[in-house]
Amino acid sequence: MNDERYQVIIIGAGIGGLVSGCLLALAKKKVLIVEKNDVPGGYCTSFKQFGLHFDTCAHSLGDLSKQGKLFAILNKIGVLEKVKRVRYDPGDIIVTEDFEVCFNNSLDKTIRNLSSIFPKEKEAISAFFKNIVCRQDFVQAMQLHKQTFSMLLDDYFVDLRLKKILGLFPLGNLGTPANHVSAFIAVKHFKQFIVDGGYYLSRGMDDLPRALMRRFTALGGKLSFGSEVASVKCRNNTAVGIILRNGREFSADFIISACDLKSVFMRMLTDLKTRKRAKNIIREMQPSLSLFVAHVVLKKKLCNSYSPGTNVWRLRNYEYDRVHKRQINYSDMSVGWIMLRIGIRKKTVTLFTNAPYRGSSFWRRNRVDFFSRILKLASDVVPGIDNNVKSVQLLTPFGLNKMTGNYNGAGYGWASTPNQSFVADLLSDGVAKNLFLSGHWGSVAQGIPGVAIAGERVSRIILARMKNVKI
Ligand SMILES: Cc1cc2nc3c(=O)[nH]c(=O)nc-3n(C[C@H](O)[C@H](O)[C@H](O)COP(=O)(O)OP(=O)(O)OC[C@H]3O[C@@H](n4cnc5c(N)ncnc54)[C@H](O)[C@@H]3O)c2cc1C
């Protein structure tokens, strides 16, 4: 079985890798996906505890209306009807020390909600959503690419509290604070997750990777689990195959890296002359922030609380975004914000916040304390939750890294800063010919819609290359 040959080999069966794999298999190409874990999905998996369902990391979807790109991609692959979608309304609620605001499925309603709290900003709120978030034109996109989201918010709004609540979404959902995140990416995120957000998979998020996996294999694709790639074989600076940790080798015309990029360029590409340039570029690049996740089984079912499914955000105060800086410098481990989701049966709660990457011994010592800080903030929105914990599973940045290999447990690949917007494009097929990048390290458009779009794009490029067509 040594040196099996494929047209395309994909490293990683996360959503990015699976989408690329399905689209290439749909075009009748001979494709192999190799995955180090025993299940597909990467960050998009689920598990059960006491018979109760939890989504491990990714839990909500955007961009799934009929106009959404994720909708179009899943439809093209033929899995849209295989996953059971539901939409919750409101998708998000932000609770601060002095108000609570809902982000509803109806944009007009969201604009009214925000305007009733910030009446002086009424016109600016409407203009922000209607002229910026919902508009898609090239000139505007180019302008937004150059600035941060904070700059854009400063152009539109005066009230600091309004700017802070809008700035929470890129921090929580993209792992990049408003004063660093590219305005283009943040606006895109608002469109996908706030205007067209609130979608969930009622059987759990693992419904999606499983549906993609089934489709991929039905189309003749081969998926190999428990197969960790140790290196990418190169000849004359061209990627020609992979070697697994167990020594097995596979050859291909094209390789797609749909996993952590630092590992690929720093560890896996050993025999490549141009690697030095890539190493220098990657050394300078910043990953997105990591997260700390607590999956809680409750002793007693919640009554009179927020609706299950909705993302409920609680800010400690309006300075929440300074906390992560202190965390990165390891000078303070306080919690600036949490996001809480009540499970459908109201017997579970999942809590999220940003946390810095540190090793296993640090988190062994500190994770219980960090959890109690999160729980304290959660008890502001769900009173009594701190005395209602039956069991908890904690997922630290170290755990995220172990699970998926993502550098520093980064939640969303590269930080979506203006400077980093196009760097991944330079590395794709540029450093090692025929080595393409997919997933959240292969572009800065993140989350499940972002990696699906990246996966679709790379498959299109490879198919065109196979036909020798320039795109
Ligand atoms: C806590 C958390 C919550 C999130 N919530 C949301 C959300 O609600 N909605 C949303 O849209 N996004 C969310 N995201 C982001 C989203 O989950 C990711 O951006 C997306 O799933 C990344 O997909 P991917 O395919 O690029 O990579 P990954 O999911 O990281 O998959 C990479 C795969 O490659 C495999 N791999 C790694 N190294 C190797 C190797 N050497 N050999 C073989 N296989 C390898 C890994 O095991 C993994 O399966 C969240 C992320 C986190 C961490």
Shape: globular
Low-pLDDT stretches are none
CATH architecture of the largest domain: 3-Layer(bba) Sandwich
> Helices and strands: which structural class?
alpha/beta
Q: Can you identify the CATH class of the largest domain?
A: Alpha Beta
Discrete helix count? 16
Average predicted confidence as pLDDT: 92
Notes on the structure:
The chain has 471 residues and is α/β, with parallel strands linked by helices. The chain has three domains: 4-83 and 203-286 and 414-466, 3-Layer(bba) Sandwich (FAD/NAD(P)-binding domain), CATH 3.50.50; 106-197, Guanine Nucleotide Dissociation Inhibitor, domain 1; 290-404. 39% of the residues lie in helices and 21% in strands. The strands form four sheets. Strands 1, 2, 9, 10, 11, 12 and 18 form a seven-stranded mixed sheet that branches. Strands 7-6-14-15-16-13-17 form a seven-stranded mixed sheet, with helices on both faces. The protein has a two-stranded antiparallel ribbon with strand order 3-4. Helix 1 runs parallel beside helix 16 (447-466). The longest helix is centred in the last third of the chain and has 22 residues, at 360-381. It is globular. The two termini are 36 Å apart. The relative contact order is 0.18. The model has no long low-confidence stretch (mean pLDDT 92). The chain binds flavin-adenine dinucleotide. Flavin-adenine dinucleotide binds next to helix 1, strand 13, helix 14 and helix 16.
